[in-house]
């Protein structure tokens, strides 16, 4: 093989005068050897290119030894500005330095080759590991995953626990199984069924006290609505139940069981196949689970306001939409179903039924405007008796005389009545097993024992009486959905000094009740001719309760008038109504609920303002409901011996 000099000079260089062939001088051989090493390190093509960049091609082709060394120097040192052509005396030292530089290049080239080789090996190893992971993932998807011994033991322990079953929950056993078993709510159930069975079902809010069957009624009405031909509900329409007290809005939107949320691939643990490629995973919520059916939210009034607003958005759109900064619609790695959820949202076309024990004013106006409202009625003692008797039949137990009525004295809630019966049943069952009779009879002693252990007191007391009393009257109040009677009593004594009498009234009764006293003073003077300033008058609200509102005006007026005139009032009559300065009876709120309070207290007659007449259906709860317009009309019903137009004259002692 010829020298590199021969390659450049003999083959490519043109013939010219003064051409001197390469000699066999040791320096020439050393120079050729260095060129050969460069060719091995860089390659012939790259050497030529580099020589061109360093402006050394003409020197490489030169027959002069010094110029060829200059070309070597420029190429190795990568400096085209070197101009000095070494002499034969300088060449040996320069070749030694260039040889060392070439040795460094060869060592670096060898090291780079080793590193490149290791990189290639590492890439191949990683590639094989990746292929292995993919292969294992495919195998796991194709066949059940083998359990570790520890996991197998835990699974077997869970399966063993599943086989252990206690007795059925009492509430589940005694829960109504048909609409006919729901006691005391015929109008509410009928309205609920009409609104759900329509081809255009409405969102609903159910109001009422706790434990009266709102949830059960909603569930059973849906089952009934599925059977109606025009109903939009399919046979498999879901009834998804949740509680508003457990639903909280997360401002970060990381968790939202109601609307749904997105699990990002970094912090929240999306599925592994999604996390590996950085794709967020949408998690549809209860609104999507309820698609095509009913979403029932108990205690909807307890929900966070922001969450209520988000729910309203879903009701309008009939879809739940998802957002995530990790979602890239152009990413080809996003599965089609995830892309569909982000782009189109999850379906959420359902009927919302919210139940609450709060009053309507406590519910969001925006939510109320989108829902029809149905009021469930408080239960009377008669309703509680029926519920207890029906539950006793399901327990296959007999009730001693008066047991059902006794339970009705302790509660106005159907759920609590059933719990009380179940506890009493346990005592009776133990007694039956000890005696060996096997026949369970629940007695009053069983109920009393439960009441004592649970620290219960009788909720309902019959306060009515056939005997009239002076200065004592029953007013009516309401708290939430439950009415109650308010005992008001008054006593009057002649003042020690005429015109300097004093009026005392409960401090806790409230400012509006005190205003009713002053209004009553004006009316008393008009209807009796008596001056309150001539008497020391003491008015008392028995129990020290607060009267929130003017509805006790007629009751206070009646008690004061009775105390001043010494004429007795009936004790089987309850009255509600605001009194004006001119003796007019003004309308009040909560009349429907107050009727339950009057009935539970054993009242026969209920006096209401004339303008509230339409608030109570005729014959409601078997009460004799009497609307009045003036104080005199109320007096004719309240006073035991009636009231006539001559009463004012008689009261003055001039009759």
Describe this structure in words.
By secondary structure, this protein is an alpha/beta fold. It has 24 helices and 22 strands. It has a seven-stranded mixed beta sheet with strand order 15-16-14-13-18-21-22. Helix 2 (26-42) packs parallel to helix 5 and helix 9 crosses helix 10 (214-225). The protein is elongated and about 155 Å long. The model is unreliable at 1-5, 7-23 and 649-655 (pLDDT under 50).
Question: Largest beta sheet, briefly?
Answer: 7 strands, mixed
Q: Count of helical segments?
A: 24
Low-confidence stretches: 1-5, 7-23, 649-655
Which structural class do you get from the secondary structure elements? alpha/beta
Average pLDDT confidence is 82
Total beta strand runs: 22
Q: What percentage of the residues does DSSP assign to strands (E)?
A: 5-15%
What's the alpha carbon Rg, rounded to whole Å?
Answer: 49 Å
Distance between the termini: 158 Å
Helix content: 40-55%
Biggest sheet, strands in spatial order? 15-16-14-13-18-21-22
Shape: elongated
Sum this structure up briefly.
The protein is 44% helix and 15% strand. The chain has 655 residues and is an alpha/beta fold.
């Amino acid at each position: 093989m010829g020298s590199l000099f021969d390659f450049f000079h003999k083959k490519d260089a043109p013939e010219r005068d003064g051409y001197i062939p390469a000699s066999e001088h040791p320096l020439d051989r050393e120079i050729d050897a260095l060129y050969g090493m460069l060719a091995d390190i860089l390659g012939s093509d790259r050497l030529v290119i580099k020589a061109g960049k360093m402006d050394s091609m003409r020197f490489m082709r030169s027959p002069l030894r010094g110029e060829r060394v200059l070309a070597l120097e420029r190429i190795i040192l990568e400096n085209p500005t070197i101009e000095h052509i070494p002499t034969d005396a300088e060449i040996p030292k320069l070749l030694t330095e260039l040889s060392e530089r070439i040795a460094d290049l060869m060592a670096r080239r060898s090291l780079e080759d080793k590193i490149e080789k290791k990189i290639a090996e590492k890439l191949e190893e990683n590639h094989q590991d990746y292929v292995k992971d993919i292969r294992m993932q495919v195998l796991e998807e194709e066949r059940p995953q083998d359990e570790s011994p520890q996991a197998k033991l835990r699974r077997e322990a869970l399966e063993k626990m599943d086989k252990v079953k206690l007795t059925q929950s009492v509430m589940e056993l005694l829960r109504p199984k048909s609409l006919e078993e729901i006691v005391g709510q015929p109008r509410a159930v009928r309205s609920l069924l009409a609104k759900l069975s329509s081809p255009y079902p409405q969102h609903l809010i159910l109001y009422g006290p706790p434990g009266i069957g709102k949830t059960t009624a909603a569930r059973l009405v849906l089952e009934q609505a599925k059977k109606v031909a025009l109903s939009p509900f399919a046979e498999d329409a879901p009834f998804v139940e949740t509680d508003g007290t457990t639903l909280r809005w997360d401002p970060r939107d990381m968790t939202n069981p109601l609307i749904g949320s997105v699990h990002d691939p970094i912090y929240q643990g999306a599925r592994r196949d999604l996390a590996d490629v950085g794709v967020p995973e949408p998690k549809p919520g209860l609104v999507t689970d309820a698609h095509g059916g009913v979403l029932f939210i108990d205690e909807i009034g307890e929900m966070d306001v922001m969450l209520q607003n988000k729910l309203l958005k879903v009701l309008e759109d009939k879809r739940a939409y998802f957002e995530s900064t990790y979602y890239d619609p152009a990413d080809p790695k996003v599965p089609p179903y995830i892309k569909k959820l982000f782009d189109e949202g999850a379906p959420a076309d359902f009927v919302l039924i919210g139940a609450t024990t709060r009053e309507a004013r406590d519910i969001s106006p925006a939510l109320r405007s989108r829902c029809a409202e149905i009021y469930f009625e408080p239960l009377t003692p008669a309703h509680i008796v029926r519920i207890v008797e029906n539950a006793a039949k399901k327990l296959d137990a007999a009730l001693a005389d008066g047991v059902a009525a006794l339970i009705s004295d302790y509660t106005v809630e159907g759920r609590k009545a059933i719990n009380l019966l179940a506890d009493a049943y346990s005592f009776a069952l133990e007694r039956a097993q000890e005696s060996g009779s096997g026949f369970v009879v629940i007695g009053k002693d069983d109920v009393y024992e439960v009441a004592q252990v649970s620290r219960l007191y009788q909720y309902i007391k019959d306060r009515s009486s056939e005997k009239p009393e002076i200065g004592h009257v029953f007013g009516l109040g309401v708290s939430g959905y439950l009415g109650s009677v308010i005992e008001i009593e008054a006593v009057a004594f002649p003042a020690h000094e005429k015109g300097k009498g004093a009026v005392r009234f409960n401090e806790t009764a409230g400012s509006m009740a005190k205003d009713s006293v002053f209004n009553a003073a004006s009316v008393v003077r008009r209807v009796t001719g008596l001056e309150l300033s001539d008497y020391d008058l003491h008015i008392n609200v028995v129990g020290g309760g607060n009267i929130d509102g003017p509805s006790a005006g007629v009751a206070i007026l009646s008690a004061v008038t009775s105390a001043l005139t010494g004429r007795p009032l009936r004790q089987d009559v309850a009255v509600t109504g605001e009194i004006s300065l001119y003796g007019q009876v003004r309308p009040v709120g909560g009349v429907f609920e107050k009727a339950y309070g009057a009935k539970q207290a054993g009242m026969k007659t209920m006096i209401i303002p004339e303008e509230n007449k339409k608030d109570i259906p005729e014959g409601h709860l078997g009460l004799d409901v009497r609307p009045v317009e003036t104080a005199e009309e109320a007096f004719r019903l309240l006073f035991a011996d009636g009231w006539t137009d001559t009463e004012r004259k008689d009261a003055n002692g001039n009759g």
